[in-house]
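Today's session is about reading a structure prediction critically. Students often jump straight to the picture, but the first step is always the sequence itself: look for stretches that repeat, for charged clusters, for runs of hydrophobic residues. Only then move on to the predicted structure, which in these notes is written as discrete structure tokens rather than atom positions. Here is the chain we will use throughout the hour.
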Amino acid sequence: MPLGLIALAIGAFGIGLTEFVIMGLLPEVAASFGVTEATAGWLISGYALSVVVGALGLTAATTRLPRKPVLLGLVVLFIAGNALTALAPDYTTAMIGRIIAALCHGAFFGIGSVVAADLVAPDKKARAIAIMFTGLTAANVFGVPFGTFIGQQFGWRATFWAISAIGILAFAGIAALVTVPRAGGATVSLRHELRAFRSGQVWLSLTVTVLAYGGMFGAFTYIAYTLTGVTGFAASAVPWLLVLFGVGLVVGNVVGGRLADRSIDRTLLGFTAALLVVLVAFALLAWSQPATIAVLVLLGAFGFGTVPGLQSRIMQYAGGAPTLASGANIGAFNVGNALGAWAGGLGIAAGLGYTSPIWIGAAITASGLVVMAIAALTARSSTPSATTATLRTVAA
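Below is the predicted structure for this chain, in token form.
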């Protein structure tokens, strides 16, 4: 395994903490700033929407620049945003800090996915991307529960100071370990990268990403409220319950990456259908502690198991212009995040209870499954030679 993949995973670990740890701390953050649950949720939605801006804007702006310096610059932005969040005297400043940190997210994963794919053989691309995203899953298994514990014991600001320190470690790791192949540093025009968006399959892939991932996120955004207000767990148990979700993420990421290298579309169809079943089961059985424990593992596994396949699929159909399309797909993940968090918040604000985000998430996922089925059916008309040429070009 190339050492550069480890460095990219370190960066992904820090970014994963920034994105997800606030969910376990949402009640504390809301109380600290004196805002409602739905308003506090905008610290998640605002982050997600800013990821979209960064994924497209920063990726496009840095297209002609060498990838390694760009990755390092993005980590600096990440550190600054988290430090500002830790220092925030009010809700508005905290939101600004979240936005700054979010701007690096999409571009980092988008460019990092291309770099990871460049480091391995064509038949191991999804697995290489999965290794980079292992940092994100590890953040959920170890970092998010520990960060939630730190926030509950020493205040939520301490968690963001710890994340800033991890950002510094990530910077050092990327600087020392990432080596971009010569072709990876080649100058590519923005016009060339924009050609990827002529493909209908690229747009279908982006839509599936928004809906499939958004459905899971709709249920997960308000998970702390569901676990305490419906299932009856104590608030102190939330960090350790998130470990179970994180275990599912790791398993899903690894299995999903391996299966996607065999058949991307079949893997995405299977995992999305399974996610829909899990969400419905969760909504029906959220009152049961044993059932909820099992569902948390499955929710993470099937929800995140789609990520390597979704990222590989858009790179496959982007042809010789994968960087911007890859960044756009990271943006699509976070459009889904924002959609799920916003829609789930509407359910709670309407007085439908803390299971309403789960039902809403299931509805979003069901629409994603329909779009994925359409994408798979229409993709059958693509010629094998074209697909092979695309993979070879991305690997160059």
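Discussion point for the tutorial: The chain is about 85% helix and 0% strand.
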